[in-house]
C-alpha cells in the first residue's frame, strides 16, 4: 500500500499542499482536505481513500470556480450550475459544490431574487411581469418568485408606471395624443406592467395639448406627409393620402382638413 513520504506547501498557493507517495509526487490537496483526511507523513493511503480524497478535491475546485464567478455579482443557483457544467464538472460534483456554497451563504435564490427585484424596479422601471420573466430565465423556483414579487405592491407599481408616462409625455410632446398614448401603452406592456396599472397611470397624466401645441403638431405632421406624398401624387390622390397619413398619426379630421385647405390655397397663390 502506498505511503505518504512527503507533504510540502506550494509556494504560489499557500493553501495547497503537494502529496508524495513512495517518494514520487502524486497530487496536491487543499489545506481543508489535508486536515479533513488527517494526511500525515508515513500514513498509508489505499485506493479507496485516494479516490475519496480526489473527489473532495474536485468538489473544492468546483467551489473555487463558482466563487470566482460569484465574485463579479450575485448569481442564481441555476446560473452557477450552468457555469460549472460549462467548465465540465460532473453532475454529482456540482451538486455537492452547490450544497457547500449554500451552507457558506454564497448562494441564496431568495436573496438573489430580492436584489434582482430592487435593481429592475428602481433602475430599469420594470413591472412585475418583466421581472418574473427574468427570474424564470435565471431558473428561480416559482414559489420563490411569487413570494418576492409580492413585495412589489400595486401602489409602487402605479407610481413607477406614472413616472414613466409623465417622462414620455414630456419628451414626445410634439406627437399627437392618440399616437403618443398608444406608443406609451405599448412601452409599458413591454416593461411588464399589467393593463389595470397602465390604464390608471395613463389616466393620471394630461395628454391634451393646448391650441398652440396642436397647431405645431398638425403643421409638423402635415408638412412631412405633404412633402412625402407630393413626390408621386397630385390632386385628389395626394389629398386622400395626406389625409390618411395624418389621421394615422392621430391628427383630428377638422385639423387635417384645415391644413390641406391651407396647402392648396398656398399652391393656388403661387
UniProtKB/TrEMBL annotation:
Highest taxon of the lineage: Bacteria
Keywords, in A-Z order: Cytoplasm
Question: What are the RecX third three-helical domain coordinates in residue numbering?
Answer: 155-202, 221-260
UniProt entry tagged with the keyword ATP-binding: no
**Where is each RecX second three-helical domain found?**
108-149
All copies of domain RecX first three-helical, residue ranges = 62-101
- Keyword Transmembrane found: no
Subcellular localization is given as: Cytoplasm
Alphabetized InterPro entries for the sequence: RecX_HTH_1st, RecX_HTH_2nd, RecX_HTH_3rd, Regulatory_RecX, WH-like_DNA-bd_sf
Q: Which residues form a coiled coil?
A: none
Briefly state the protein's biological role: Modulates RecA activity.
Family to which the UniProt record says this protein belongs: Belongs to the RecX family.
Under the heading HAMAP family, the entry gives: RecX
Query: Any idea what this protein is called?
Result: Regulatory protein RecX
Q: Which gene encodes it?
A: recX
Amino acid at each position: 500500500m502506498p505511503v505518504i513520504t512527503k507533504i510540502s506547501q506550494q509556494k504560489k498557493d499557500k493553501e495547497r499542499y503537494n502529496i508524495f507517495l513512495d517518494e514520487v509526487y502524486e497530487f496536491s490537496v487543499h489545506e481543508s482536505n489535508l486536515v479533513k483526511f488527517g494526511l500525515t507523513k508515513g500514513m498509508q493511503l489505499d485506493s479507496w481513500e485516494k479516490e475519496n480524497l480526489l473527489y473532495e478535491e474536485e468538489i473544492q475546485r468546483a467551489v473555487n470556480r463558482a466563487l470566482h464567478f460569484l465574485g463579479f455579482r450575485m448569481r442564481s443557483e441555476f446560473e452557477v450550475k450552468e457555469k460549472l457544467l460549462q467548465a465540465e464538472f460532473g453532475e454529482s460534483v456540482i451538486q455537492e459544490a452547490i450544497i457547500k456554497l449554500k451552507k457558506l451563504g454564497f448562494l441564496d435564490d431568495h436573496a438573489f431574487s430580492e436584489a434582482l427585484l430592487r435593481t429592475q424596479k428602481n433602475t430599469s422601471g420594470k413591472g412585475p411581469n418583466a421581472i418574473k420573466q427574468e427570474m424564470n430565465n435565471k431558473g428561480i423556483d416559482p414559489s420563490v418568485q411569487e413570494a418576492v414579487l409580492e413585495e412589489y405592491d400595486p401602489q409602487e407599481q402605479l407610481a413607477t408606471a406614472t413616472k414613466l408616462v409623465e417622462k414620455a409625455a414630456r419628451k414626445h410632446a410634439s406627437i399627437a395624443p392618440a399616437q403618443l398614448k398608444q406608443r406609451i401603452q405599448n412601452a409599458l406592456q413591454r416593461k411588464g406592467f399589467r393593463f389595470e396599472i397602465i390604464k390608471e397611470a395613463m389616466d393620471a397624466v394630461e395628454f391634451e395639448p393646448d391650441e398652440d401645441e396642436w397647431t405645431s403638431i398638425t403643421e409638423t405632421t402635415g408638412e412631412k406627409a405633404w412633402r412625402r406624398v407630393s413626390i408621386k401624387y397630385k390632386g385628389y390622390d395626394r389629398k386622400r393620402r395626406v389625409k390618411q397619413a395624418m389621421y394615422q398619426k392621430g391628427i383630428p379630421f377638422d385639423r387635417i382638413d384645415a391644413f390641406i385647405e391651407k396647402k392648396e390655397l398656398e399652391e393656388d397663390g403661387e
